[in-house]
Amino acid sequence: MNPHTIRVCDAEGRRLVLQERERKVPKVGGKEFPIQVPIPPERPSNSHKTWPLARATAWVPARAVAGRTRHGEVIWLLTTLSVEQASAPELLRLYRLRWQIELFFKRLKSWLHLDTLPSRQGPTAKSWMLARFLAVALAQKLAQPAGPLSPWGYELRQAGLHS
What we know:
Blueprint: E1 8-9, E2 15-16, E3 30-39, E4 58-68, E5 74-79, H1 88-112, H2 122-142
Antiparallel strand pairs: 1-2, 3-4, 4-5
């Protein structure tokens, strides 16, 4: 989540600025903050003006989980899962896995050169795409994996989360 674009509050409904809590996030591991997300009232127009928290139509209990990258930047995750459903270290590991998928799709788009499709219709496009997918699959199989890249730059440890 981008803490600049989502309004979050503490348990009493007071505005919470997550960036002010970044100093509490350790260099390795993460930090969890219980939060509430206010649901805004219906707007009659497309105005992007702020609205008073007292007009929230509902409050969603959630957790903000923060971890640092290898460069010390803070990455924020937002979840409505309970601690019993997914611990903060599990959430950080899931995000790391999601990061691997994003990197794979970025490589895939680069390898496939989808912007150079000779045709966008019929059997020509289908055979061209299948040939590209086959080439990418072979390249992936032949390449020596360098290991997963992590947005944190280190492997998360189960005990690495500091509450």
